[in-house]
Amino acid sequence: MLKLELDIDLIMLLCSIVLASIIVLFLFIDIQYFVRSIFVLVWGRIFELRKKPDELTTIYGLCTTSDLDIIFKHMNNARYVRELDFARFHFYDRTGIYKAIIGKKGNILQSACIIRYRRTIPLFTMYKITTKIVYWDEKSVYLEQQFISLKDNFIKAVVFSKQGVVGVNASEIINDLLKKEDSYRPEKTEELEHFISCLDASSMRLRKKDE
Ligand SMILES: *[C@@H]1O[C@H](CO)[C@@H](O)[C@H](O)[C@H]1NC(C)=O
To answer: What digits encode the pLDDT tens for the residues 144-200?
Structure first.
């Protein structure tokens, strides 16, 4: 009888420790962020083929209750940008760009993004996020990403982003993976030209201020 009581106490203690650890973990770490990142990478590695750097990559998502905005109807603005991270990790892994950069002791960092919200993503909407490289130079990679509703194929949001590549020559790495000649660059679209000049203007203005 006494032994049984002791055992129950021990079990209760262990359960409390596990529960407390889980609570602490959730308080200090955005667990879902890491779980989703790992999930898209592992899923890609098991079920998807490798892509060339200039091919489109796709991940899928669903607007859940934890994505909602203050009026509890649509995905909130910040969530879109969070989802883009997963799509980018997946893109860099599938295309082998990340491995090539890290292999040469370089690194890649998001340095700018512009997002145009075209239509809301209501609760329980299934969508896909496509990612495609649109331009690159020695120091940067430019991506276009789109949120597309699965039901009607409507492009809900479109995003351009710039990633700074440090420690290695980005152009060399991408052209190498594409088996293109060293000087190859894709054509810039008009939007991309404006995006790049907007970033340059912003950089110039802040630089003047810092001086
Ligand atoms: C980067 O690589 C390209 C070849 O893809 C070359 O033309 C260029 O000079 C290199 N730039 C630097 C800074 O090494």
So the answer is: 999 999 999 999 999 999 999 999 999 999 999 999 998 999 999 999 999 999 999
E-strand ranges in the chain read: 57-62, 107-117, 126-136, 140-149, 155-166
As a whole number of angstroms, the distance between CA 87 and CA 45 comes to 14
pTM for the model stands at: 0.91
Mutational pocket test of ligand 1: of 136, 165, 166, 172, the residue with most ligand atoms within 8 Å of the beta carbon: 172
Mean pLDDT of 28-56: 96
Length of the chain: 211
Domain ranges of the chain: 27-210
Mutate-to-test residue for ligand 1 from 141, 182, 184, 185, highest number of ligand atoms within 8 A of CB: 182
Find residue 109's DSSP bridge partners: 164
- Beta strand residue intervals within 92-209, DSSP E: 107-117, 126-136, 140-149, 155-166
- DSSP 3-state of 138: coil
CATH 3.10.129.10 for domain 27-210, yes or no, is yes
Residue with tokens 């098991």: 46
Distance CA 177, CA 68 (A): 39
Amino acid 157: pLDDT: 98
Of residues 116, 123, 124, the one with CA closest to residue 147: 116
